[in-house]
């Protein structure tokens, strides 16, 4: 799981977005429009044609893969996924010296778009931070930096920006977490980003109740009302970090489904590999079924790597990065379950 990797590696009707020739030069927000991804009815993501788009796809650990995962994207396409959450890091290699650039990220974006999959861009550097305000400020600075912003503005109608992955270790108060995310949203809007912005839940992304209680105030703080609220469901039945019964999981997801907010499960997995007492199973089939019942999106953590093979772990859906290599729970989640990606995903209209 990504926490371990980091340790080891040291709506109102709204808009998305104009192409580069519409990008602003004076840092005022681009006007809302409906020619790309946007939130409708305050609850659902819609594509350029106004069709409801329930995100169904996978996470791809681009920051940890040779070639940043370009070889894996065509394999992910074979699942029928309509979205890929791309794991980005400012410093991406084991030595801490590799700096991920806009030129390296752009081919990932265009490859996903060409294959009908929404690129969800997430910044991974601040996972589990104890300083959410400072960390989100730094994340915002990266998204608006000199080479990154002009490149991303070209693809606004087709991308989602996940401001920062799990930017809280559980120590932030609700008020602090809300305020930090509101500031980040306002600053990104002021910089010209009108595409959907994704916010992870606090407590390593795992707290679903935060959005039920505070989601509306987050949406109201966005001048374009174009947010997606993301929960990561590392909820094992028994574990060192919490015990989640089927009844509790059902209540969580039903509450999220009835919240009237645009909710996605940005990471679901079959296991929790962060438990101090060993790998613990998660009732992922129940989670997938409840997502389908409540029309909640989900993105599986995570696709496997072609190379380096050593980057694969117990959560990898395929050990060689290939669709033909899907096995076990990875194949179930991607293909064979009634609520799998293959059986439930619908591609977006108008990404190109």
Write up this protein.
- The protein is α/β, with parallel strands linked by helices.
- The protein has a single domain (2-23, 32-344), classed as Alpha-Beta Barrel (TIM Barrel), CATH 3.20.20.80.
- The protein is built from eleven helices and twelve strands.
- Strands 3-4-5-6-7-8-9-12 form an eight-stranded parallel beta barrel. Strands 1-2 form a two-stranded antiparallel sheet. A two-stranded antiparallel ribbon has the order 10-11.
- It is globular and about 45 Å long.
- The relative contact order is 0.17.
Give a quick set of tags describing it.
single chain, 352 residues, alpha/beta, TIM Barrel, 8-stranded parallel beta barrel, two-stranded antiparallel sheet, 11 helices, globular, glycosidase, hydrolase, signal, EC 3.2.1.78, mannan endo-1,4-beta-mannosidase activity
Per-chain topology:
Elements: H1 2-8, E1 38-40, E2 44-46, E3 56-60, H2 73-77, E4 83-88, H3 102-114, E5 118-123, H4 132-143, H5 148-153, E6 160-162, H6 174-190, E7 197-200, H7 209-221, E8 227-232, H8 246-257, E9 263-268, E10 271-272, E11 280-281, H9 284-294, E12 297-300, H10 328-336, H11 341-344
Parallel strand pairs: 3-4, 3-12, 4-5, 5-6, 6-7, 7-8, 8-9, 9-12
Antiparallel strand pairs: 1-2, 10-11
Helix pairs in contact: 4-6, 6-7, 8-9
Enzyme class: hydrolase
Signal peptide: 1-15
Organism: Dyadobacter fermentans
């Amino acid at each position: 799981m990504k926490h371990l990797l980091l340790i080891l590696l040291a709506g109102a009707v709204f808009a998305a977005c104009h192409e580069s020739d519409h990008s602003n030069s004076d840092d005022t927000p681009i006007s809302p429009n409906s020619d790309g991804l946007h939130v409708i009815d305050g609850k659902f993501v819609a594509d350029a044609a106004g069709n409801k788009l329930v995100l169904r796809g996978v996470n791809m650990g681009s920051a940890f893969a040779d070639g940043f995962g370009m070889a894996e994207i065509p394999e992910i396409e074979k699942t029928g996924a309509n979205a890929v959450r791309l794991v980005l890091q400012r410093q991406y290699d084991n030595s801490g010296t590799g700096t991920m650039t806009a030129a390296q990220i752009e081919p990932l974006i265009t490859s996903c778009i060409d294959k009908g999959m929404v690129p969800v861009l997430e910044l991974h550097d601040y996972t589990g931070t104890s300083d959410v305000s400072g960390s989100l400020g730094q994340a915002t600075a990266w998204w608006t930096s000199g080479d990154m912003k002009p490149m991303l503005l070209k693809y606004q109608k087709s991308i989602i920006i996940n401001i920062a992955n799990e930017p809280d270790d559980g120590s932030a108060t609700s008020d602090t977490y809300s305020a930090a995310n509101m500031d980040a949203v306002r600053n990104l809007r002021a910089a010209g980003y009108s595409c959907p912005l994704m916010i992870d839940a606090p407590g390593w992304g795992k707290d679903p109740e935060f959005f039920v209680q505070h989601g509306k105030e987050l949406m109201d703080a966005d001048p374009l009302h174009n947010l997606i609220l993301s929960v990561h469901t590392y909820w094992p039945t028994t574990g060192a970090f919490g015990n989640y019964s089927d009844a509790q999981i059902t209540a969580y997801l039903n509450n999220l489904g009835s919240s009237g907010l645009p909710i996605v499960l940005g990471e679901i997995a079959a296991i929790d590999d962060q438990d101090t007492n060993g790998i613990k199973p998660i009732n992922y089939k129940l989670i997938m079924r409840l997502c389908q019942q409540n029309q909640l999106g989900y993105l599986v953590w995570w696709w496997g790597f072609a190379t380096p093979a050593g980057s694969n772990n117990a959560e990898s859906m395929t050990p060689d990065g290939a669709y033909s290599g899907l096995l076990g729970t990875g194949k179930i989640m991607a293909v064979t379950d009634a609520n799998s990606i293959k059986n439930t995903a619908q591609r977006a209209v108008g990404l190109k």
